[in-house]
Amino acid sequence: MQFFYIDYMNGNKKERNIGFLRVESDGISVGLHGVPMQCGGRCKVYALNCLGERCLLGEVSVRNGYGMEKLSWTKEVNFMDCLGVEIPLYGSRIGKCVIRQQSDIVSAQNNSESIAPKEDRAQADEVKEEPIGRLTEDKWTQLLELYPQVHIFPEAQSILI
Fold it and tell me: What predicted TM-score, i.e. pTM, was given to this entire model?
């Protein structure tokens, strides 16, 4: 069992966390919080397979911005082939969760075959993680760059993580 966060994306910009996934061999549990009212009462959940296809896993009922549902893997997407999950919300906004990179699947397949072809190794070597924000001495400044500020009280500085 593994847990992953679902990011609320507005275009290519991450705005906040909107829930979590609990991934198991028989399916996933989707927990949503803070879903905008514009999304209505149901959110469709799509799995992204290793071929780059979106496959519908099911829907999550949403009430007052919250929802939770257990969804089973399909014949199109199973645990080993799933790269991530997308939940279209409204407009250009989506909930997005990356479970693994394409190179992780290539590496797993290559390990089972013991010797990887040169072109697969080259592709896996090209994948580099982008740094998350700028490292600073002052951690509060670093957090301010990564997360949106919220104003709960006029005299308090707060961020939404």
Answer: 0.63
